Amino acid sequence: MQDKAKLEEDICIHIFTVSSAMVGVCLTVIGLIRVVITLGKANTVADDLLAVDALLFLASCLLSYAAMRSRGLRRMHRIERAADGTFIAAMIVMTAICGVITYAMAIPTHG
């Protein structure tokens, strides 16, 4: 039982660290997209979508932190599942955003 609890805590730690790093990645890419849009190379909704995605990663990060701080094993499991699901959803959204960015950069814009 102790080994399983340790493994679950390790999963929470991984979700926490990767989610917080992904918030930074989203914010960096938003800045890069704004530079591209300012230069007139492309216009896309990807920066808006990335802002939403950053919030999803932040929610995942906060949920995993809450799971690590949880005292009850059953409660920790519920919060951990929510953190995991939110993290997976955010990764799927990020993959879709990559497609939007690729499409936007491939299509030439005519002012």
Describe the structure.
- With 111 residues, this protein is mostly helical.
- 86% of the residues lie in helices and 0% in strands.
- The protein has 3 helices and no strands.
- The protein has helices at 2-38, 46-69, 73-106.
- The longest helix is centred in the first third of the chain and has 37 residues, at 2-38.
- The protein is elongated, with a radius of gyration of 18 Å.
Summarize the SSE layout with pairings.
Elements: H1 2-38, H2 46-69, H3 73-106
What keywords describe this structure?
111 residues, mainly alpha, elongated
> Low-confidence parts, pLDDT < 50 over ≥5 residues?
none
Mean pLDDT over the full residue set: 83
Number of strands: 0
| Ends apart, CA distance between termini | 63 Å
Q: What is the 3D shape?
A: elongated
Radius of gyration: 18 Å
Question: Which percent band covers the strand fraction?
Answer: under 5%
Summarize the structure.
The chain has 111 residues and is mostly helical.
